[in-house]
Amino acid sequence: MRHTTRQPILWTSTDWNAFFGFGTNILVNMLVLTGLLRFVLKMPDSLVFGRILPALGLMMCLSTFYYAWLAYRLAQKTGRDDVCALPSGVSVPHMFVVTFVIMLPITIKTGDPFKGWSAGLVWVFFQSFILMIGGFIAPYIRKITPRAALLGTLAGVSITFISMRPALEMYMTPAIGITCFAVILASWFGGFKYPKGMPAGLVAIVVGMAIAWGSNLFGSGIGGMSLQNVTGAFANFGFSVPLPAFGAVFSGFEFLGIILVTAIPFGIYDLVEAMDNVESAEAAGDTYPTTRVLSADGVVSLIGCLMGNPFINAVYIGHPGWKAMGGRIGYSAATGVLVIVLSWFGIIALMSSLIPLVAISPILLYIGMLIGAQAFQETHKSHAPAIVLALVPHLAAWCKVQIDGALGAAGTNAATVGFEKLGQLGVLYHGLEVLGGGAILTGLILAAIAVFIIEKKFTEASAFAATGAVLTFFGFMHGEAVGIAVTPSVAIGYAMVAAVLFALGRYPALATLSLATEARTAAAE
Fold first, then answer.
1. Which of 28, 229, 327, 329 could join 322 via S-S bond, C-beta 3.0 to 4.6 A?
2. What are phi and psi of 199, to 5 degrees?
3. How far apart, in Å, are the Cα atoms of 458 and each of 339, 446, 464, 500, 507?
4. Residue 427's closest CA among 391, 405, 396?
5. Proportion of the chain above pLDDT 70, given as a percent
Protein backbone atom coordinates (compact mmCIF):
# COMPACT_ATOMS: atom_id res chain seq x y z
CA MET A 1 0.00 0.00 0.00
CA ARG A 2 1.39 3.39 -0.99
CA HIS A 3 1.85 5.82 1.89
CA THR A 4 0.11 9.16 1.43
CA THR A 5 1.05 12.35 3.28
CA ARG A 6 -1.66 14.78 4.31
CA GLN A 7 -1.03 18.12 2.62
CA PRO A 8 -0.83 21.14 4.96
CA ILE A 9 -3.64 23.69 4.89
CA LEU A 10 -2.37 26.94 3.31
CA TRP A 11 -4.95 29.25 4.89
CA THR A 12 -7.04 29.04 8.03
CA SER A 13 -9.62 31.43 9.46
CA THR A 14 -7.22 32.37 12.27
CA ASP A 15 -4.64 33.50 9.70
CA TRP A 16 -6.77 36.64 9.31
CA ASN A 17 -5.95 37.72 12.89
CA ALA A 18 -2.22 37.35 12.36
CA PHE A 19 -2.41 38.92 8.89
CA PHE A 20 -4.09 42.11 10.12
CA GLY A 21 -1.83 42.34 13.15
CA PHE A 22 1.41 41.62 11.34
CA GLY A 23 0.31 43.52 8.23
CA THR A 24 -0.28 46.64 10.36
CA ASN A 25 3.16 46.22 11.90
CA ILE A 26 4.72 46.04 8.43
CA LEU A 27 2.68 49.04 7.26
CA VAL A 28 3.88 51.17 10.18
CA ASN A 29 7.49 50.17 9.47
CA MET A 30 7.08 51.13 5.81
CA LEU A 31 5.59 54.51 6.74
CA VAL A 32 8.47 55.16 9.14
CA LEU A 33 10.99 54.13 6.51
CA THR A 34 9.38 56.37 3.91
CA GLY A 35 9.45 59.28 6.34
CA LEU A 36 13.16 58.74 6.96
CA LEU A 37 13.90 58.72 3.24
CA ARG A 38 11.81 61.78 2.39
CA PHE A 39 12.17 64.06 5.41
CA VAL A 40 15.47 63.08 7.02
CA LEU A 41 17.55 62.19 3.96
CA LYS A 42 15.62 64.60 1.68
CA MET A 43 15.55 62.09 -1.14
CA PRO A 44 13.44 62.98 -4.19
CA ASP A 45 10.11 61.17 -4.58
CA SER A 46 11.26 59.72 -7.89
CA LEU A 47 13.99 57.83 -6.02
CA VAL A 48 11.87 56.89 -3.00
CA PHE A 49 8.72 55.72 -4.79
CA GLY A 50 10.25 54.81 -8.14
CA ARG A 51 13.34 52.85 -7.07
CA ILE A 52 13.72 52.16 -3.34
CA LEU A 53 10.20 51.11 -2.31
CA PRO A 54 9.65 48.75 -5.28
CA ALA A 55 12.95 47.01 -4.49
CA LEU A 56 12.01 46.90 -0.82
CA GLY A 57 8.66 45.32 -1.74
CA LEU A 58 10.39 42.67 -3.82
CA MET A 59 12.77 41.78 -0.99
CA MET A 60 10.02 41.53 1.62
CA CYS A 61 7.76 39.53 -0.69
CA LEU A 62 10.54 37.01 -1.36
CA SER A 63 11.23 36.78 2.38
CA THR A 64 7.63 36.24 3.50
CA PHE A 65 6.98 33.74 0.70
CA TYR A 66 10.15 31.81 1.58
CA TYR A 67 9.25 31.55 5.26
CA ALA A 68 5.71 30.49 4.33
CA TRP A 69 7.32 27.74 2.23
CA LEU A 70 9.57 26.69 5.13
CA ALA A 71 6.50 26.47 7.35
CA TYR A 72 4.71 24.41 4.69
CA ARG A 73 7.64 21.97 4.55
CA LEU A 74 7.76 21.73 8.36
CA ALA A 75 4.01 21.08 8.52
CA GLN A 76 4.34 18.48 5.78
CA LYS A 77 7.22 16.77 7.58
CA THR A 78 5.63 16.70 11.03
CA GLY A 79 1.99 16.27 10.02
CA ARG A 80 1.00 19.11 12.35
CA ASP A 81 -1.57 21.76 11.51
CA ASP A 82 -0.36 24.38 14.02
CA VAL A 83 2.97 25.28 12.36
CA CYS A 84 3.48 29.06 12.19
CA ALA A 85 5.75 30.75 9.64
CA LEU A 86 8.59 32.91 10.93
CA PRO A 87 7.72 36.63 10.74
CA SER A 88 10.16 38.70 8.70
CA GLY A 89 10.66 42.13 7.17
CA VAL A 90 12.96 45.13 7.20
CA SER A 91 15.24 45.01 10.23
CA VAL A 92 13.97 47.93 12.34
CA PRO A 93 17.20 48.68 14.28
CA HIS A 94 19.20 48.57 11.06
CA MET A 95 16.69 50.84 9.35
CA PHE A 96 17.81 53.62 11.66
CA VAL A 97 21.47 52.65 11.72
CA VAL A 98 21.88 52.75 7.94
CA THR A 99 19.88 56.00 7.81
CA PHE A 100 21.60 57.97 10.57
CA VAL A 101 25.05 56.38 10.70
CA ILE A 102 25.68 55.74 6.98
CA MET A 103 23.36 57.54 4.56
CA LEU A 104 22.75 60.81 6.45
CA PRO A 105 26.42 61.70 7.18
CA ILE A 106 27.43 60.91 3.59
CA THR A 107 24.47 62.84 2.19
CA ILE A 108 25.40 65.85 4.32
CA LYS A 109 29.09 65.56 3.44
CA THR A 110 28.53 65.28 -0.32
CA GLY A 111 25.30 67.28 -0.57
CA ASP A 112 23.98 64.49 -2.80
CA PRO A 113 21.20 62.13 -1.58
CA PHE A 114 22.04 59.74 -4.40
CA LYS A 115 25.52 59.30 -2.88
CA GLY A 116 23.87 58.49 0.45
CA TRP A 117 21.66 55.95 -1.31
CA SER A 118 24.70 54.31 -2.96
CA ALA A 119 26.48 54.08 0.40
CA GLY A 120 23.41 52.44 1.93
CA LEU A 121 23.38 49.87 -0.87
CA VAL A 122 27.02 48.97 -0.26
CA TRP A 123 26.30 48.63 3.47
CA VAL A 124 23.57 46.07 2.73
CA PHE A 125 25.79 44.39 0.14
CA PHE A 126 28.39 43.54 2.79
CA GLN A 127 25.79 42.79 5.46
CA SER A 128 24.23 40.22 3.11
CA PHE A 129 27.48 38.28 2.72
CA ILE A 130 28.17 38.48 6.46
CA LEU A 131 24.78 36.86 7.04
CA MET A 132 25.33 34.14 4.45
CA ILE A 133 28.82 33.27 5.68
CA GLY A 134 27.98 33.94 9.31
CA GLY A 135 25.46 31.14 9.52
CA PHE A 136 28.42 28.78 9.85
CA ILE A 137 30.44 30.82 12.38
CA ALA A 138 27.65 32.50 14.37
CA PRO A 139 27.73 30.00 17.25
CA TYR A 140 31.45 30.68 17.82
CA ILE A 141 31.04 34.48 17.75
CA ARG A 142 28.14 34.24 20.15
CA LYS A 143 30.19 32.03 22.46
CA ILE A 144 33.15 34.41 22.85
CA THR A 145 31.33 37.78 22.87
CA PRO A 146 29.39 38.77 26.01
CA ARG A 147 25.73 39.55 25.41
CA ALA A 148 26.13 42.79 27.36
CA ALA A 149 28.66 43.95 24.74
CA LEU A 150 26.43 43.15 21.77
CA LEU A 151 23.28 44.60 23.32
CA GLY A 152 25.14 47.48 24.98
CA THR A 153 26.52 48.93 21.77
CA LEU A 154 23.10 48.53 20.13
CA ALA A 155 21.60 50.39 23.09
CA GLY A 156 24.05 53.20 22.39
CA VAL A 157 22.72 53.53 18.85
CA SER A 158 19.13 53.36 20.10
CA ILE A 159 19.55 56.13 22.67
CA THR A 160 21.37 58.53 20.37
CA PHE A 161 20.61 58.00 16.70
CA ILE A 162 17.19 56.36 17.10
CA SER A 163 15.62 58.08 20.11
CA MET A 164 16.89 61.65 20.20
CA ARG A 165 15.55 63.04 16.91
CA PRO A 166 11.98 61.71 17.32
CA ALA A 167 11.97 62.89 20.95
CA LEU A 168 12.91 66.41 19.83
CA GLU A 169 10.30 66.31 17.05
CA MET A 170 7.61 65.27 19.54
CA TYR A 171 8.25 68.30 21.71
CA MET A 172 8.31 70.62 18.72
CA THR A 173 4.70 69.56 18.01
CA PRO A 174 3.60 68.40 21.47
CA ALA A 175 -0.17 68.35 20.84
CA ILE A 176 0.33 65.42 18.49
CA GLY A 177 3.67 63.98 19.64
CA ILE A 178 3.02 63.66 23.36
CA THR A 179 -0.57 62.50 22.90
CA CYS A 180 0.42 59.74 20.46
CA PHE A 181 3.28 58.77 22.77
CA ALA A 182 0.80 58.27 25.63
CA VAL A 183 -1.39 56.10 23.36
CA ILE A 184 1.59 53.86 22.60
CA LEU A 185 2.95 53.65 26.14
CA ALA A 186 -0.48 52.77 27.56
CA SER A 187 -0.65 49.70 25.33
CA TRP A 188 2.91 48.52 24.73
CA PHE A 189 4.14 49.11 28.27
CA GLY A 190 0.88 49.35 30.21
CA GLY A 191 -0.94 46.44 28.58
CA PHE A 192 -4.09 48.42 27.74
CA LYS A 193 -6.20 46.77 25.02
CA TYR A 194 -7.82 49.04 22.44
CA PRO A 195 -11.27 48.24 20.98
CA LYS A 196 -11.51 45.45 18.39
CA GLY A 197 -7.91 44.52 19.17
CA MET A 198 -6.58 47.49 17.17
CA PRO A 199 -2.76 47.66 17.32
CA ALA A 200 -1.44 50.57 19.38
CA GLY A 201 0.71 51.84 16.49
CA LEU A 202 -2.37 52.11 14.27
CA VAL A 203 -4.37 53.83 17.05
CA ALA A 204 -1.56 56.37 17.55
CA ILE A 205 -1.49 57.15 13.83
CA VAL A 206 -5.28 57.59 13.72
CA VAL A 207 -5.19 59.90 16.77
CA GLY A 208 -2.35 61.91 15.23
CA MET A 209 -4.26 62.25 11.96
CA ALA A 210 -7.40 63.35 13.81
CA ILE A 211 -5.53 66.08 15.70
CA ALA A 212 -3.58 67.27 12.63
CA TRP A 213 -6.50 67.36 10.20
CA GLY A 214 -8.90 68.60 12.87
CA SER A 215 -6.61 71.53 13.62
CA ASN A 216 -6.70 72.46 9.93
CA LEU A 217 -10.43 73.03 10.20
CA PHE A 218 -9.79 75.65 12.87
CA GLY A 219 -6.91 77.29 11.04
CA SER A 220 -4.06 76.26 13.37
CA GLY A 221 -2.56 73.70 10.96
CA ILE A 222 -0.76 71.49 13.50
CA GLY A 223 1.34 68.78 11.90
CA GLY A 224 1.85 70.37 8.48
CA MET A 225 -1.02 68.56 6.76
CA SER A 226 -2.52 70.05 3.60
CA LEU A 227 -4.85 69.01 0.81
CA GLN A 228 -2.20 70.17 -1.64
CA ASN A 229 0.18 67.45 -0.37
CA VAL A 230 -2.56 64.85 -0.70
CA THR A 231 -3.27 65.94 -4.26
CA GLY A 232 0.44 65.84 -5.06
CA ALA A 233 0.69 62.29 -3.71
CA PHE A 234 -1.53 61.06 -6.52
CA ALA A 235 1.32 61.92 -8.89
CA ASN A 236 3.18 58.92 -7.44
CA PHE A 237 0.34 56.56 -8.26
CA GLY A 238 1.23 54.11 -10.96
CA PHE A 239 3.07 50.88 -11.39
CA SER A 240 6.76 50.94 -10.52
CA VAL A 241 8.70 47.70 -10.67
CA PRO A 242 12.21 47.28 -9.26
CA LEU A 243 15.04 47.85 -11.72
CA PRO A 244 18.68 46.74 -11.42
CA ALA A 245 20.85 49.23 -9.52
CA PHE A 246 24.27 47.69 -10.10
CA GLY A 247 25.82 51.04 -11.01
CA ALA A 248 24.61 52.68 -7.80
CA VAL A 249 25.91 49.76 -5.74
CA PHE A 250 29.42 49.80 -7.16
CA SER A 251 29.70 53.59 -7.15
CA GLY A 252 29.14 53.47 -3.40
CA PHE A 253 32.38 51.53 -2.89
CA GLU A 254 34.19 54.86 -2.61
CA PHE A 255 32.78 55.00 0.95
CA LEU A 256 33.91 51.47 1.79
CA GLY A 257 36.17 52.49 4.67
CA ILE A 258 33.33 54.22 6.50
CA ILE A 259 30.86 51.44 5.75
CA LEU A 260 32.95 48.52 7.02
CA VAL A 261 33.25 50.16 10.44
CA THR A 262 29.54 49.50 11.02
CA ALA A 263 28.81 46.61 8.65
CA ILE A 264 31.01 44.13 10.51
CA PRO A 265 29.71 44.63 14.08
CA PHE A 266 26.09 44.84 12.97
CA GLY A 267 26.56 41.74 10.86
CA ILE A 268 27.63 39.98 14.07
CA TYR A 269 24.59 41.33 15.87
CA ASP A 270 22.35 40.07 13.04
CA LEU A 271 23.72 36.59 13.50
CA VAL A 272 22.98 36.56 17.22
CA GLU A 273 19.55 38.14 16.80
CA ALA A 274 18.52 35.60 14.14
CA MET A 275 19.67 32.71 16.33
CA ASP A 276 17.72 34.09 19.28
CA ASN A 277 14.55 34.41 17.20
CA VAL A 278 14.90 30.89 15.78
CA GLU A 279 15.38 29.58 19.31
CA SER A 280 12.24 31.48 20.36
CA ALA A 281 10.27 29.78 17.56
CA GLU A 282 11.63 26.39 18.61
CA ALA A 283 10.49 27.01 22.18
CA ALA A 284 7.02 27.64 20.75
CA GLY A 285 7.11 24.27 18.99
CA ASP A 286 8.38 25.16 15.49
CA THR A 287 11.96 24.09 14.75
CA TYR A 288 13.65 25.84 11.83
CA PRO A 289 17.29 25.40 10.66
CA THR A 290 19.37 28.40 11.77
CA THR A 291 21.86 28.22 8.90
CA ARG A 292 19.08 28.16 6.32
CA VAL A 293 17.33 31.13 7.96
CA LEU A 294 20.52 33.23 8.04
CA SER A 295 21.36 32.31 4.46
CA ALA A 296 17.84 33.23 3.32
CA ASP A 297 18.05 36.64 5.01
CA GLY A 298 21.38 37.24 3.30
CA VAL A 299 20.19 36.14 -0.15
CA VAL A 300 16.95 38.17 -0.18
CA SER A 301 18.80 41.20 1.22
CA LEU A 302 21.40 40.91 -1.55
CA ILE A 303 18.67 40.69 -4.21
CA GLY A 304 16.95 43.75 -2.74
CA CYS A 305 20.26 45.62 -2.59
CA LEU A 306 21.11 44.92 -6.22
CA MET A 307 17.65 46.20 -7.19
CA GLY A 308 18.06 49.43 -5.19
CA ASN A 309 16.92 48.74 -1.60
CA PRO A 310 19.32 50.04 1.13
CA PHE A 311 17.61 48.20 4.01
CA ILE A 312 18.38 44.69 5.19
CA ASN A 313 15.91 41.87 5.81
CA ALA A 314 15.63 40.02 9.12
CA VAL A 315 13.55 37.43 10.92
CA TYR A 316 11.47 39.31 13.48
CA ILE A 317 11.15 38.54 17.13
CA GLY A 318 7.62 37.62 18.18
CA HIS A 319 6.94 34.29 16.44
CA PRO A 320 5.21 32.86 19.57
CA GLY A 321 2.87 35.87 19.66
CA TRP A 322 1.74 35.50 16.04
CA LYS A 323 1.33 31.77 16.56
CA ALA A 324 -0.81 32.35 19.66
CA MET A 325 -2.90 34.79 17.62
CA GLY A 326 -3.63 32.03 15.11
CA GLY A 327 -1.02 32.64 12.43
CA ARG A 328 -0.06 29.57 10.44
CA ILE A 329 1.31 29.48 6.86
CA GLY A 330 -0.96 31.82 4.92
CA TYR A 331 -0.51 34.99 6.97
CA SER A 332 3.14 35.25 5.93
CA ALA A 333 2.47 34.88 2.18
CA ALA A 334 -0.52 37.26 2.37
CA THR A 335 1.71 39.90 3.98
CA GLY A 336 4.09 39.55 1.04
CA VAL A 337 1.26 40.29 -1.38
CA LEU A 338 0.23 43.31 0.73
CA VAL A 339 3.76 44.72 0.60
CA ILE A 340 3.87 44.40 -3.19
CA VAL A 341 0.58 46.29 -3.52
CA LEU A 342 1.70 49.07 -1.18
CA SER A 343 5.14 49.56 -2.71
CA TRP A 344 4.63 48.91 -6.43
CA PHE A 345 1.47 50.97 -6.87
CA GLY A 346 2.53 54.12 -4.98
CA ILE A 347 -0.07 53.74 -2.21
CA ILE A 348 2.52 54.51 0.48
CA ALA A 349 2.89 58.00 -1.04
CA LEU A 350 -0.79 58.75 -0.40
CA MET A 351 -0.67 57.37 3.12
CA SER A 352 2.43 59.46 3.88
CA SER A 353 0.60 62.62 2.82
CA LEU A 354 -2.33 61.77 5.08
CA ILE A 355 -0.32 60.89 8.20
CA PRO A 356 1.72 63.57 10.05
CA LEU A 357 5.32 62.54 10.57
CA VAL A 358 5.21 63.56 14.23
CA ALA A 359 2.52 60.90 14.81
CA ILE A 360 5.09 58.28 13.87
CA SER A 361 7.91 59.79 15.96
CA PRO A 362 6.61 58.25 19.24
CA ILE A 363 6.85 54.82 17.64
CA LEU A 364 10.52 55.45 16.91
CA LEU A 365 11.14 56.66 20.46
CA TYR A 366 9.40 53.56 21.81
CA ILE A 367 11.65 51.34 19.67
CA GLY A 368 14.69 53.17 21.00
CA MET A 369 13.46 52.74 24.58
CA LEU A 370 12.82 49.04 24.03
CA ILE A 371 16.23 48.34 22.51
CA GLY A 372 17.99 50.36 25.18
CA ALA A 373 16.10 48.65 28.00
CA GLN A 374 16.78 45.21 26.51
CA ALA A 375 20.49 45.63 27.13
CA PHE A 376 19.86 45.88 30.88
CA GLN A 377 16.98 43.41 31.07
CA GLU A 378 18.58 40.56 29.14
CA THR A 379 21.97 40.67 30.88
CA HIS A 380 23.19 40.10 34.43
CA LYS A 381 22.76 43.14 36.67
CA SER A 382 26.47 43.10 37.53
CA HIS A 383 27.19 43.93 33.86
CA ALA A 384 25.27 47.22 33.98
CA PRO A 385 28.47 49.33 34.24
CA ALA A 386 29.75 47.67 31.06
CA ILE A 387 26.55 48.59 29.23
CA VAL A 388 26.87 52.21 30.37
CA LEU A 389 30.44 52.20 29.09
CA ALA A 390 29.19 50.93 25.72
CA LEU A 391 26.90 53.97 25.48
CA VAL A 392 29.70 56.53 25.81
CA PRO A 393 31.25 56.27 22.30
CA HIS A 394 27.79 56.63 20.75
CA LEU A 395 27.11 59.78 22.79
CA ALA A 396 30.39 61.20 21.50
CA ALA A 397 29.52 60.30 17.91
CA TRP A 398 26.05 61.84 18.21
CA CYS A 399 27.43 65.07 19.72
CA LYS A 400 29.98 65.35 16.92
CA VAL A 401 27.23 64.95 14.31
CA GLN A 402 25.23 67.76 15.96
CA ILE A 403 28.25 70.07 16.14
CA ASP A 404 29.23 69.36 12.53
CA GLY A 405 25.67 70.02 11.39
CA ALA A 406 25.42 73.32 13.27
CA LEU A 407 28.79 74.57 12.07
CA GLY A 408 28.05 73.42 8.54
CA ALA A 409 24.80 75.39 8.54
CA ALA A 410 26.86 78.44 9.51
CA GLY A 411 29.19 77.83 6.58
CA THR A 412 32.18 76.71 8.63
CA ASN A 413 33.62 73.66 10.40
CA ALA A 414 35.47 72.72 13.59
CA ALA A 415 38.93 72.97 12.02
CA THR A 416 38.22 76.52 10.83
CA VAL A 417 36.85 77.62 14.20
CA GLY A 418 39.81 75.96 15.92
CA PHE A 419 39.91 73.02 18.33
CA GLU A 420 41.58 75.15 21.01
CA LYS A 421 38.90 77.84 20.82
CA LEU A 422 36.16 75.19 21.03
CA GLY A 423 37.97 73.62 23.99
CA GLN A 424 37.92 76.94 25.84
CA LEU A 425 34.12 76.76 25.61
CA GLY A 426 34.07 73.21 26.98
CA VAL A 427 33.66 71.53 23.58
CA LEU A 428 36.44 68.94 23.35
CA TYR A 429 35.88 68.34 19.66
CA HIS A 430 38.98 66.23 19.02
CA GLY A 431 38.01 63.98 21.93
CA LEU A 432 34.54 63.51 20.44
CA GLU A 433 36.13 62.78 17.07
CA VAL A 434 38.47 60.08 18.40
CA LEU A 435 36.11 58.46 20.91
CA GLY A 436 33.12 58.52 18.56
CA GLY A 437 34.92 57.15 15.49
CA GLY A 438 33.67 53.64 14.78
CA ALA A 439 31.40 53.89 17.83
CA ILE A 440 29.65 50.58 17.25
CA LEU A 441 32.82 48.50 17.44
CA THR A 442 34.30 50.75 20.12
CA GLY A 443 31.25 50.28 22.34
CA LEU A 444 31.35 46.53 21.80
CA ILE A 445 35.06 46.17 22.62
CA LEU A 446 34.96 48.45 25.67
CA ALA A 447 31.90 46.67 27.05
CA ALA A 448 33.45 43.24 26.47
CA ILE A 449 36.62 44.29 28.31
CA ALA A 450 34.53 45.61 31.19
CA VAL A 451 32.37 42.48 31.40
CA PHE A 452 35.39 40.19 31.62
CA ILE A 453 37.05 42.43 34.21
CA ILE A 454 33.84 42.35 36.27
CA GLU A 455 33.90 38.54 35.96
CA LYS A 456 37.62 38.59 36.93
CA LYS A 457 38.49 36.90 33.63
CA PHE A 458 41.52 39.06 32.92
CA THR A 459 42.93 36.89 30.14
CA GLU A 460 39.71 37.16 28.13
CA ALA A 461 39.63 40.90 28.79
CA SER A 462 43.22 41.11 27.55
CA ALA A 463 42.25 39.31 24.33
CA PHE A 464 39.50 41.86 23.61
CA ALA A 465 41.86 44.75 24.44
CA ALA A 466 44.40 43.32 21.98
CA THR A 467 41.63 43.00 19.40
CA GLY A 468 40.79 46.65 20.07
CA ALA A 469 44.43 47.59 19.42
CA VAL A 470 44.39 45.86 16.03
CA LEU A 471 40.99 47.29 15.03
CA THR A 472 42.07 50.78 16.09
CA PHE A 473 45.36 50.56 14.19
CA PHE A 474 43.46 49.86 10.98
CA GLY A 475 40.77 52.47 11.60
CA PHE A 476 37.80 50.23 12.43
CA MET A 477 37.70 51.92 15.84
CA HIS A 478 38.45 55.54 16.78
CA GLY A 479 38.64 56.55 13.14
CA GLU A 480 36.34 57.87 10.43
CA ALA A 481 37.55 55.41 7.80
CA VAL A 482 39.63 52.27 7.40
CA GLY A 483 43.37 52.80 6.88
CA ILE A 484 46.79 52.07 8.38
CA ALA A 485 47.94 53.67 11.65
CA VAL A 486 44.81 55.86 11.71
CA THR A 487 45.12 56.64 15.43
CA PRO A 488 48.35 54.90 16.50
CA SER A 489 48.47 56.47 19.97
CA VAL A 490 45.10 54.97 20.86
CA ALA A 491 46.14 51.61 19.40
CA ILE A 492 49.23 51.67 21.62
CA GLY A 493 46.99 52.46 24.58
CA TYR A 494 44.87 49.38 23.93
CA ALA A 495 48.02 47.27 23.52
CA MET A 496 49.29 48.46 26.91
CA VAL A 497 45.90 47.66 28.48
CA ALA A 498 46.08 44.19 26.93
CA ALA A 499 49.55 43.65 28.43
CA VAL A 500 48.45 44.79 31.91
CA LEU A 501 45.33 42.62 31.85
CA PHE A 502 47.29 39.62 30.59
CA ALA A 503 49.75 40.03 33.47
CA LEU A 504 46.86 40.22 35.93
CA GLY A 505 45.39 37.10 34.40
CA ARG A 506 48.67 35.26 34.86
CA TYR A 507 49.25 36.53 38.41
CA PRO A 508 47.25 33.82 40.26
CA ALA A 509 49.23 31.10 38.47
CA LEU A 510 52.51 32.82 39.31
CA ALA A 511 51.43 33.18 42.94
CA THR A 512 50.55 29.50 43.15
CA LEU A 513 53.91 28.55 41.63
CA SER A 514 55.75 30.79 44.09
CA LEU A 515 53.98 29.24 47.09
CA ALA A 516 54.72 25.74 45.82
CA THR A 517 58.42 26.61 45.43
CA GLU A 518 58.56 28.03 48.95
CA ALA A 519 56.90 24.91 50.33
CA ARG A 520 59.41 22.63 48.61
CA THR A 521 62.32 24.74 49.87
CA ALA A 522 61.02 24.63 53.43
CA ALA A 523 60.56 20.87 53.22
CA ALA A 524 64.11 20.41 51.92
CA GLU A 525 65.53 22.44 54.79
1. 327
2. -65, 145
3. 50, 14, 10, 9, 10
4. 396
5. 90
